[in-house]
Specification:
about 190 residues, alpha/beta, 7-stranded mixed sheet, 7 strands, about 30% helix, about 20% strand, transmembrane, transport
Length: about 190
């Protein structure tokens, strides 16, 4: 019998068993698993190209609401950043805050102005003045974007336009979809249209 260093050793039958995992086995086999990265690189390239095509350099100016279907326009221009007055079949919303119900506006026959809309637009002007108080070169233009549903009666749009004028917003743009694509464009109101 050869001379061995003292210590605990497993029995011969356990040295190569699955329980010990071949921990004491003398011959280790190399396990090289190769990963093919070419399809992964192709997929990532396609994702990058897709995201670059979908990227808008102008940013998100107009939030498209589900319940508003914009009219189509053949000629227009890019929408500038301004407060958004959204007129759906049920409500009038200014920058995400509901100011009036269309049913109530339709039932009131004698008045043209919408006081809650005027107040909200004046608050937006105060906020703009506070943000730009240290920038004398920046001049307030009084721009507002109106996003009106196709089916909204003109008498409601007329009341919204009147309220915008009373609040000091005379530069009115109507949001419309470009006839060729689904991009929103602004159609400025002419002198006889607003």
């Amino acid at each position: 019998m050869p001379i061995v260093t003292p210590g605990k050793r497993p029995a011969k039958r356990f040295e190569k068993s699955k329980i010990l995992g071949g921990k004491f086995a003398r011959a280790h086999k190399a396990t090289n698993a190769e990963l093919n990265v070419v399809p992964m690189v192709d997929m990532m390239t396609m994702l990058v190209i897709f995201l670059l095509q979908q990227f808008s350099s102008t940013g998100e100016v107009l939030y498209m609401q589900k319940d508003i279907k914009l009219p189509d326009a053949r000629h227009g221009q890019i929408i500038e950043i301004a407060p958004v007055v959204a007129i759906s079949a049920e409500q009038v919303v200014v920058t995400g805050v509901k100011v009036a119900d269309v049913r109530e506006l339709d039932s009131e026959g004698g008045y043209l102005n919408i006081p809650a809309l005027e107040e909200r637009l004046r608050d937006e002007k105060k906020r703009w003045d506070f943000i730009h108080q240290n920038d004398p070169e920046k001049k307030w233009e009084g721009a507002v974007n109106i996003q009106a549903d196709k089916g909204v009666p003109f008498r409601i749009v007329k009341r919204v336009l009147f309220s915008c004028g009373v609040a000091g917003y005379f530069n009115v743009n109507f949001a419309a979809l470009d006839a060729g694509t689904a991009v929103a464009a602004a159609a400025p109101a002419g002198p006889g249209e607003g």
